[in-house]
Amino acid sequence: MQRIENRDVFEGEFFLPGDKSITHRAVMLNAGADGEATITNALMGEDCLSTCGCMRELGAEVKTDGTSVWVKGTPQFFSGKSLNCGNSGTTIRLLTGFVAGKGIHATLHGDPSLSSRPMKRVSQPLSLLGADVKTTDGHAPVYVAPSNLHGAKIDLEISSAQVKSAALLAGISADGETVVTEPVKSRDHTERMLSAMGADITVEGNAVRVKRSDLKALDVCVPSDISSAAYFMALGALKGKTLCKNVGINPTRVGILTAFDRLGVKYALLNKRVSGGEETADILVEKSPLCAITLTEKDVPSMIDELPLVALLCAFADGETRITGAKELRVKESDRVRTTAELINRLGGDCEELEDGFIIRGKKTLIGGDVDSYLDHRIAMTAAVGMIASQKGGVISRPECCAISFPDFFEKLGVKLS
User: Fold this and answer.
1) Do 134 and 105 form a contact (C-beta atoms < 8 A)?
2) SS3 sequence, 125-192?
3) Fewest CB within a 10 Å sphere: which of 146, 299, 381, 383?
């Protein structure tokens, strides 16, 4: 249990952890590349540590030192390994495609939360490539056996960077060309990194084409994660002024800024630059009156991680917000449609749960209250923002789950864990 006090003003300059999505990919792809690489400003939360552990189990050399990771790829991966993916959906989904392309046996498993998340959405596209991937009633454990992969055309019904990436990581080991198409373009970190490492890959709108490729090791400086910065950006919009430094602004990841534009949040992108193929900037956010918005299925992929936070901001807005097309939230670490609606209502807001989203009747202010994290890091961090911005604060149960993606979140908030 953690008490979070409300504050009249929240201001500061913040250097935030590296992007989790990019850290996962930098470790995994370098483990399968020729040569050695150093990854700096890596996010060393529990999820990325799960990826590091799995790649060591498979035979790559992976050494961590603070926020740096040194990786040396292996030409021959160990077979028959049991790979513990912990709580990380990114690890298990990307790794399923990665292992399918390596011609080895492997079992992928995780904690009870991960074991409840759907895996057929990965195994089915991989089967089109000829991969031998079996799930346990559609979930983990997942069993991968050697098979001869061949190129295929894969049309995803739901846009998902994790599923797309799994297919691409198998596709670089397949004969012929693999084409992955999704209805709305999802985050493209995998495509960018594969290209930088020498893969034969092209992007045409929402379609990605890849052919058999050998990868060369790549040093990566990981930009700060916009989905982590978002909590401090939100507090700037609600309670003062915040500056988040060196934040990744990859066009497929800046849905939170699209939401800010519609909400009426005052912000500026300063000191824009490019690092390792990824755009970055310092983001300044100032206190702003918020207005209700509408978000639909086409808006969701670029802000999927931040949607609980966006919903919370809408609870502080003027008017009625409608968010739809977000059914994907129901299969995250928690059912985030249900847990987000519960969070807002417990803080004194008015949020109606839809099958694929929310109707939020903004009250401009929230009283505060106690919230269960459901061991979901996004829910815990969103609750903390809501309590700081509320009239009376509140208590978060099981706040330690924030270590999954943001180990020093409360420290940067200025909250001493009790």
Assistant:
1) no
2) HHHHCCCEEEEECCEEEEEEECCCCECCEEECCCCCHHHHHHHHHHHCCCECEEEEECCCCCCCHHHH
3) 146
Q: Which two tokens stand for residue 253?
A: 């990841």
- Give the whole-angstrom CA distance, residue 208 versus residue 26: 19
Pair 376, 331: CB distance under 8 Å: no
Q: Are 161 and 174 in contact (CB under 8 A)?
A: no
Q: How far apart (Å, rounded) are the C-alpha atoms in residues 242 and 10?
A: 8
Q: How confident is the model over 166-194, as a mean pLDDT?
A: 95
Q: In DSSP terms, which residues pair with 181 in a beta bridge?
A: 155, 207
Average pLDDT, stretch 334-341? 97
Residue where the block lists tokens 């012929």: 176
Q: In the predicted model, what is the mean pLDDT of the chain?
A: 95
Residue ranges of domains in the chain, CATH in brackets: 2-17+224-413 (3.65.10.10), 20-206 (3.65.10.10)
Rounded-to-integer distance, Cα 107 and Cα 74, Å: 19
276, pLDDT greater than 80: no
Q: Which of 19, 305, 372, 376 is catalytic?
A: 305
- 234-281-416 Cα angle (round to 5): 45
Tokens 């399923």, residue? 96
Q: CB of 394 within 8 A of CB of 7?
A: no
**Closest listed residue to residue 315, CA positions, set 258, 363, 347:** 363
> Dihedral, CA atoms, 355, 361, 366, 372, nearest 10 degrees?
-10
Q: For 376-403, how does the pLDDT look when each residue is reduced to its tens digit (9 = 90+)? A: 999 999 999 999 999 999 999 999 999 8
CA separation for the pair 326, 310 (Å, rounded): 12
* pLDDT tens-digit map of 108-124: 999 998 999 999 999 99
Please, are residues 358 and 369 in contact by the beta-carbon 8 Å criterion? Answer: no
Looking at residue 193, its pLDDT comes to 94
Average pLDDT, integer, range 42-49? 91
Q: Is 305 a catalytic residue?
A: yes
Average pLDDT over residues 224-245: 96
CA 383, CA 418: separation in Å to the nearest integer?
17
